[in-house]
UniProtKB/TrEMBL annotation, chains A, B:
Domain of life: Bacteria
Protein's UniProt name: Homoserine dehydrogenase
Family indicated by similarity: Belongs to the homoserine dehydrogenase family.
Cofactors: a metal cation
GO biological process, one term: methionine biosynthetic process
Organismal lineage: Bacteria, Bacillati, Actinomycetota, Actinomycetes, Mycobacteriales
Keywords noted in UniProt: Amino-acid biosynthesis, Methionine biosynthesis, NADP, Oxidoreductase, Sodium, Threonine biosynthesis
Domain ACT, first and last residues per copy: 366-440
Species annotation: Corynebacterium pseudodiphtheriticum
Length: 443, 443
């Protein structure tokens, strides 16, 4: 039994919780607006009023709508340090400056709510340690897929289960681009241009299209799902720049759509040891898989767990309002704990798994290549796969109008390094004129 | 600021949490198996070991696999009362006996985890009051859609948002039956027989096919989503017994599938007062709506919130394993609080909304009727709708092989009572030979 069960203390019920907001961009503005508009709901749900103490911004001279000018300050450190600030909401973006502020807040005994995936994915250990030492909460639901409650689901709802695999569309910009390519037959450049014009892609789209944003989210999901530390740098990451309209068409013919997936899985290596792998790459998803019908800029996370089976969570994974929803849900949680006592389940990396080398992971390849048009070429190339122990699931041989033989091969699951080396060998083979594309399948 | 912030107490860290399980059916057996199999994971996630103190069953003479015979007892009350029991897991079923046991547990200061939707939907106030008075937790994630984390999402993730509407497929049995009717053109009786043969439907399928099971879940979702009390008896409930293969075919032709939905919404009445409505009825869902593609016995919950927008959660909504996953997730939460202090967000009905009369709710009707074949009948019947202020979205007139004129009308949104009275008037009209079916649309 629990000998000395702490009792529920309501000694702070009714007392206000002081809130500091750092950053007043799209999300910050919406958070501040909703805090004011729904203040009575927040009071009722927390057990005491949430009171805004101040908003730290870069440029204090800029007019800010919807907030008392006296609330605006350029001195974030001084705002955080105020005795009447209990919870700090970090919505700045970037890594180094918010890291400094979040650490200062945690060390000063303030709970922190952040939407900053890059910060959490790069410095999780340091942040968790600071929260632990001060006995405060660090919440970051908004860092993964905005209002889709991925963090809560992994940390709490599935806390009694064994997660086997998490795969998700966690970047809306790239899903929008791929969806345009799939549904309208566009090329990558044209689809990117539309995404930029509509505000889905930034002027410099690198973080999205090269998969870095998705990699941060994959790192966070893998850490939570497998109770281990996976940092951004541990995630194998490939973006969508090289996907062509021809790839999309070939995938369609084979019964797939191409999605940029973040995939997190626990693997067992040849020596029987568990390890964790997190990766982001364009992936062929069978058309009847729930992730295949996630269109436009929507996000969805597909979780496979031992007892729960397959679960999918779908919604807007970005944008000011959905991100504000997640931030405010966390703010209610952090504030409730300030009022009623208790802490959210914190960082927990007890499983302490090594990061699997990407070469050790089992994947499947869809290889689209041009081969010489001679008798026996199919047999010879098949032998190349067989020699490596790779079995083929489907082989499609076509002849295009110029009389060039095209070979499209879908492999069964095999070790990534073996598949990779086999493709390299094919490229050197005199039978192969050109390898058009190599895209992995969702296993 | 929070003047007297309670600090994080780890005074029980490492100490065992004593667990009593009441009931050893499919779910109980799985819970006990997983607790033993993954004991080290539970210890790490809770902060102390979970130790099974006993399992209360009806029939102690029956052999029980996977549990030490000494753990088995027929005296549930004595098990609950043991000093070394901290958390009670109720998995009995029924209402009166589990109610008595859950109340006894809460009043004795034990936190309770239950999967019993009927109990929670019928006696929420009494249970919440007992939990509140003892300062313990009452968890019931498994009561709604098993491992799909509906309760956690409504109570925690969306706690900073304003939920507008919840609609969901929350009964796997009826979804399986309707899916068979949709995909294989079966009649209701044939589809029910298959569901029974496969174990999806019970020998007496009343609770499922008449919508009672879904109504319990709708009551719970409405209570959580709108911070008010909705009991089972407050839910307007219609089942699927009267749905025919012809209804399914007519819906298909109009671009819909028929699903049994639980719908919870906040409405504003003619006097400008807010009220809550929860209802269960067969519903036409547009084929491109995410709920339309939820097949077989899967469940899905679609939530619309002010800031988050639309979210959908999909998975297995029933079965021993998924239910055990939800129970164990709750058990980790309740046990963490016993070890570390703090409480889960409890029952909170501050909004205290009245239950809207179903007649006041706005719905839409799909009406399939046989009419006399004379010039001007369409114009006359349209006038009947117009006189009631009901505008029509689509009207389709067909002539079948017997020369009987069929009229299929889809209305725009109107007050349920007005739509209902209009259909009654149509039935009495000499122009209408027969009203084949009236099915509501998801607005």
């Amino acid at each position: 039994m629990v000998a000395n069960s702490p009792t529920y203390t309501e000694n702070n019920a009714g007392k206000p919780v002081g809130i500091a907001v750092l950053g007043m961009g799209t999300v910050g503005t919406e958070v501040i607006r909703l805090l004011a508009e729904n203040s009575e709901d927040f009071r009722q749900r927390v057990g005491g009023p949430l009171e805004l103490r101040g908003v730290a911004v870069d440029d204090t001279s800029k007019p800010r709508r919807g907030v008392d000018p006296e609330m605006i300050t350029g001195d974030a450190h001084a705002l955080i340090a105020r005795d009447d600030v209990d919870v700090v909401v970090e919505l700045i973006g970037g890594i180094e400056y918010p890291r400094e502020l979040v650490l200062a807040a945690l060390r000063a005994g303030k709970s922190v709510v952040t939407a900053n995936k890059a910060l959490v994915a790069a410095h999780a250990d340091e942040l968790a340690q600071a929260a632990e030492e001060s006995g405060v909460d660090l919440y970051f639901e908004a860092a993964v897929a905005a209002a889709i409650p991925v963090v809560g689901m992994l940390r709490r709802s599935l806390a009694g289960d064994q997660i086997q695999r998490i795969s998700g569309i966690v970047n809306g910009t790239t899903n929008f681009i791929l969806d345009k390519m799939i549904t309208e037959g566009m090329g990558y450049d044209e689809a990117l241009q539309i995404a930029t014009d509509l505000g889905y892609a930034e002027a410099d789209p690198t973080a999205d299209v090269d998969g870095h944003d998705a990699a941060s989210k994959a790192a966070i999901m893998a850490s939570l799902g497998f109770y281990t530390r996976v940092n951004f740098k541990d995630v194998h990451c490939e973006g969508i720049r090289d996907i062509t309209a021809a790839d999309i068409a070939a995938a369609d013919k084979a019964g797939y759509v191409i999605k940029l997936l973040g995939i997190c899985e626990k693997i067992t290596d040849d020596q029987g040891n568990d390890a964790v792998n997190a990766r982001v790459h364009p992936t062929l998803v069978a058309k009847d898989h729930p992730l295949a019908s996630v269109n436009e800029s929507y996000n969805a996370i597909f979780v496979e767990a031992e007892a729960a089976g397959s679960l999918m969570f779908y919604g807007n994974g970005a944008g000011g309002d959905p991100t504000a929803s997640a931030v405010l849900g966390d703010l209610v949680g952090a504030s409730r704990n300030k009022v009623h006592g208790g802490r959210a389940p914190g960082d927990n990396t007890y499983a302490n798994l090594p990061i699997a080398d990407f070469g050790e992971v089992h994947t499947r390849y869809h290889i689209d290549m041009e081969v010489v048009d001679r008798a026996g070429v199919l047999s010879d190339l098949s032998a190349t796969f067989a020699q490596q122990g790779i079995s083929l699931r489907t082989v499609r041989q076509e002849e295009n109008e110029d009389g060039i033989a095209r070979l499209i091969v879908v492999t069964h699951s095999a070790k990534e390094s073996v598949l990779h080396d086999t493709v390299e060998a094919l490229k050197k083979s005199s039978d192969v004129k050109k390898v058009h594309s190599v895209i992995r399948l969702d296993v």
